[in-house]
Each structure stands twice: as structure tokens, then as C-alpha cells.
Design brief:
Blueprint lengths: L1 H4 L11 E5 L5 E6 L6 E6 L6 H16 L5 H6 L1 H20 L22 E5 L3 H5 L1 H11 L11 H29 L15
Parallel strand pairs: 1-4
Antiparallel strand pairs: 1-2, 2-3
Helix pairs in contact: 2-4
Length: 200
């Protein structure tokens, strides 16, 4: 959430796409200012995380597993970090394609395209009690991030929808925290242990 309270824009200027992801919800918001009148879209994980996404991730994982090199054990120990980066990259690729950005047309290494520039993207991960406790501050910071002539002032619904999604995210987090605490009290959580627990 620190991005909301330090609204720094990329050096290139105002970002083309701003994504608000809510980790425990299927919905996410896209603020698109690439051309013309800015748009706010609400998308679902189902729009991007389909069979093609999982096949792409599986392909990348399979390739990474077999790429042992000269230091196989070091490679295996670093796989979790590599997998995390791979999932982020593939997910972003599918989100961009869902928004009409053809990866094959981008002017990036490894692609023989038409020279289209990669849009600048900022991702905000909206989670935790911070949102519900400081919703006014979050909205104020987000408005500042979205300032641009002819910008999102004509789209007032985005504030209501953002607040709704942030509230849902916060409620789910609180419920999960209560469940985890109850499991800890019963000694069922691996994340907590009492001094009298025998961990051997």
C-alpha cells in the first residue's frame, strides 16, 4: 500500500495503465489513459487466468526446472524466486493482451513486431486493514495519482467501486486473521507455537 501514500509517477510521465489488484478478490480495476478519454474498467481474474495462462506458466516452469547449468543445487534453491517472477511476468502479459496490447507487436527483445512501444504500467496491491482504516487517505492519494487534464473526473463511479472492493478485501483479511488466530489457539497453525510445544 505504500504506493498510495507516495504517489510517484514513472520518469516517462503519467503511466498508460494503472492496475489496482485486490489479492483476495477476483475483480481488479484498470485505469487506462493510453488514448483519448481515460477509461476505468473492472475486470475479473477469469478474464485473464484461463487455460492458456496455466499452459504458459507450466511451459515456463518446465523449461526452468531443466535449466540446471553448472550449479544444479544453487539453481534448485533459487527456483522459488524464479517461479514467482515468472508468474508475475506471464500474468502481466495476459492482462496486457486482454487490454488489447499484442505482445507480438511490441518493440521488445525476443519479439519480431511492428515496433509498438510497451505501455507504462503501475500496479497497486490493495490489501490489509490499511485500506479500511485510512480509506479517505487512500482515495485522496489515488485521486492525485489520476490527475490529468480531462481525466477521471467524469467517471465518479470508480471511487465507489474502489471503496466497495477495498472494503471486501479488508473483510476477507479480517476473517482470515480470525481463523488463523483460532487455529493458533488450538495448536493447529504452523505459523505459531507455544513455549510448551514439542517441535522435534
Amino acid at each position: 500500500m505504500e504506493q498510495f501514500f507516495n504517489p510517484a509517477h514513472p520518469e516517462a510521465g503519467f503511466p498508460d495503465l494503472q492496475l489496482c489488484l485486490f489479492p483476495h478478490l477476483r475483480q481488479f480495476l484498470v485505469f487506462d489513459s493510453r488514448v483519448g478519454q481515460p477509461e476505468v474498467q473492472e475486470l475479473s481474474a477469469d478474464d485473464v487466468l484461463g487455460d492458456d495462462f496455466f499452459r504458459a506458466v507450466e511451459h515456463e516452469f518446465s523449461h526452468a526446472l531443466r535449466e540446471m547449468g553448472d550449479y544444479p543445487f544453487a539453481h534448485l534453491m533459487n527456483l522459488t524466486m524464479h517461479f514467482e517472477e515468472t508468474i508475475r511476468e506471464v500474468a502481466m502479459m495476459f492482462i496486457l493482451e486482454r487490454l488489447g496490447v499484442r505482445i507480438s507487436d511490441l518493440d521488445v527483445p525476443g519479439h519480431d513486431g511492428s515496433g509498438m512501444e510497451m505501455p507504462t504500467v503501475v500496479v497497486y496491491v490493495v490489501t490489509g486493514s490499511t485500506v479500511s482504516a485510512h480509506s479517505d487517505v487512500v482515495l485522496s492519494a489515488l485521486r492525485e495519482l489520476l490527475q490529468k487534464p480531462g481525466s477521471y473526473e467524469s467517471l465518479p463511479d470508480w471511487e465507489r467501486r474502489f471503496t466497495d472492493l477495498a472494503s471486501q478485501e479488508s473483510e476477507i483479511m479480517q476473517r482470515l486473521n480470525r481463523q488463523e488466530l483460532a487455529q493458533a489457539v488450538r495448536g493447529e497453525s504452523p505459523d505459531y507455537f507455544a513455549l510448551w510445544d514439542n517441535l522435534n
